[in-house]
Design brief:
Elements: E1 2-6, H1 14-25, E2 29-35, E3 54-57, E4 65-68, H2 72-83, E5 101-108, H3 121-130, E6 136-141, H4 145-153, H5 160-183, E7 190-196, E8 206-209, E9 214-215, E10 237-238, H6 247-252, E11 256-262
Parallel strand pairs: 1-2, 1-5, 2-4, 5-6, 6-7, 8-11
Antiparallel strand pairs: 3-4, 7-11, 9-10
Helix pairs in contact: 1-5, 2-3
Length: 268
């Protein structure tokens, strides 16, 4: 397939590079348009109050690559409207792009539960593709708090255990993109949200899930002397019923979570 690939952790994320290489190895034709810098937890935000710059770049992917100094949603919107080749003779904003789907990720950390999906730049980059009539899929890699802190302490470079899991997850991602996107009709307002457990193995199974009912209060610290609040991590509170299987419980059981986010059902 011809795919637009983006993320929310920025163009230099090792997780992103593993995904791009795995997609290329699977034979997909790629166009990469990713944030210049990390844009985690920006959701579906668009940059409104300043100009946004797109820049042709070379990060060794062997495919057309740009950076955008804005949000993940900016990346997808600008890519489809201005950066990617157009279909010959096509008319209308949805039908003009040459790509057949949008792939977002692999995110550092999970993007599951009602408490986090809507805040996710990774998931909402896929949503931006859906809003252009394209099938879309978002990939995220669960990590422990210790692994996450080690990753940040080492400038985003994963250790041996995480690297091994990441390569396996990327291979799963390339396979799932090739399976799910062609089966997803265009103009369907559907995002496939995939979360990989840690560790992830070649024989790790995929289970269909729903978003966990998850409260996340107290995400900011108390004010300091100048009245400033800092974003902090919280474990949150899962109040999901026992059935059906939730994305969070799926990850905790060591399986790959596949949630179909059908935005046509909002408000029903």
């Amino acid at each position: 397939m011809k795919l637009l690939v983006t993320n929310d952790d920025g163009i230099n994320s090792v997780f992103f590079h593993e995904l791009v290489h795995a997609l290329k190895a699977a034979g997909h034709e790629l166009y990469v348009v990713a944030p210049l810098l990390e844009q985690s937890w920006t959701g579906a935000a668009k940059t409104r109050h300043r100009l946004v710059q797109s820049t042709k770049a070379d990060h060794g992917f062997g495919c057309p690559t740009w950076t955008v100094d804005g949000t993940p949603s900016d990346c997808v919107n600008i890519a489809i409207a201005h950066l990617l080749p157009k279909k010959t003779g096509a008319a209308g904003p949805v039908q003009t792009t040459c790509v057949e789907g949008v792939v977002s990720g692999i995110n550092v950390g999970f993007n599951c539960t009602l408490g986090f999906i809507l805040a996710s730049g990774t998931v909402c980059a896929a949503l931006e593709g859906v809003l252009h009539g394209l099938p879309a899929i978002a990939f995220s890699q669960d990590v422990s708090v210790k692994v996450y802190n080690d990753l940040k302490d080492h400038g985003g470079q994963p250790g041996a255990e995480l690297t091994a899991t990441l390569k396996v997850s990327a291979a799963h991602a390339a396979r799932l993109a090739g399976e799910l996107l062609p089966q997803t009709p265009p103009h369907g307002f559907t995002v496939h949200n995939i979360n990989f457990p840690f560790p992830c193995r070649a024989d790790t199974t995929v289970k269909g899930t729903v978003p966990a009912h998850f409260f996340v209060p107290g995400l900011f610290s108390a004010p300091d002397a100048d009245g400033r609040h800092k974003l902090i991590w919280t474990q949150g509170h899962d109040v999901s019923p026992p059935e059906p299987l939730t994305d969070l419980k799926c990850l905790e059981s060591g399986r790959i979570s596949h949630t179909v986010l059908d935005y046509r059902k909002l408000g029903r």
